Amino acid sequence: xxxxxxxxxxxxxxxxxxxxxxxxxxxxxxxxxxxxxxxxxxxxxxxxxxxxxxxxxxxxxxxxxxxxxxxxxxxxxxxxxxxxxxxxxxxxxxxxxxxxxxxxxxxxxxxxxxxxxxxxxxxxxxxxxxxxxxxxxxxxxxxxxxxxxxxxxxxxxxxxxxxxxxxxxxxxxxxxxxxxxxxxxxxxxxxxxxxxxxxxxxxxxxxxxxxxxxxxxxxxxxxxxxxxxxxxxxxxxxxxxxxxxxxxxxxxxxxxxxxxxxxxxxxxxxxxxxxxxxxxxxxxxxxxxxxxxxxxxxxxxxxxxxxxxxxxxxxxxxxxxxxxxxxxxxxxxxxxxxxxxxxxxx
Length: 346
Prior knowledge:
The protein is mostly beta strands. The chain folds into 2 domains: about 5-140; about 140-280, no CATH class. The protein is about 5% helix and about 50% strand. The protein has helices at about 155-160, 235-240, and strands spanning about 5-20, 25-45, 50-60, 65-70, 75-90, 90, 100-110, 125-140, 145-155, 165, 170-180, 185-195, 200, 210, 220-225, 245-255, 260-265, 270-275, 280, 325-330, 340. The strands form 5 sheets. Strands 1, 2, 3, 4, 5, 6, 7, 8 and 17 form a 9-stranded antiparallel beta sheet that branches. Strands 9, 12, 13, 14 and 16 form a 5-stranded antiparallel beta sheet that branches. It is elongated and about 140 Å long. The N and C termini lie far apart (about 115 Å).
């Protein structure tokens, strides 16, 4: 078709871009420190096309996305747009449930008198969006479950101590640190095993511990709970004296009650600290510790013929609940006399 006068042709359309990583999340908003949009155009038309790209769902430095490219005729054009400080507002595809955002395209061809516009010529395009540096995301996270199994070998030095001590009024305190805006639930099964093949299960009154979510970005929420003889068989478990290993099967439920308005950020992390209070009871009978101490005089005694009187002071301090009796024997190396004394129990 040959035009007998100048004329402009305009065509507008919209397309949606889905994020592959959003399978477990219904995204609401994402903030990216850095991102890249890759555009590829194959123009089979013999004329140049002016392309305008806009999006109200994607803002760069607080302003809606606005791009302009010139696509030459009979040419393949690739464009890489790098963006800083990008915010994306998402909608949910009603069919697939995927999170997506919309981009609007506006194409204009300006033709002059005598230009020929051939039929069956197309403009093909491909658009990809890559996340380079993620900062945070808001959305609704699906319920997921993670199971961890581990075996802890008992140190042989500890097993040698078992028959010498007993534990009373023990207590385990757990502190969970959650940097995700997602509530969690923690439960586990713990078995102690002996080398003779027997085992004993650690039983709790409540084995489904809720863990609070962080309420703000870059905040750490703490949840604390404990186990002692009032809510578990901890004393019986320790009295079983597992001397081989501990078998642990832990379950971590993510967003167990399907709470909405979750978030995570580039520094989100989760960990649990465990503190053990184990007062030890032990018996020590008739233990003797022998030592010899040579005392040098702090002054020159070369002109002394004899020492008429001397006093030796001992300062004994101990935080152990033990009675100690001290037997002191002093030997005069000149006269070979032995002086002995006993202190009362202290």
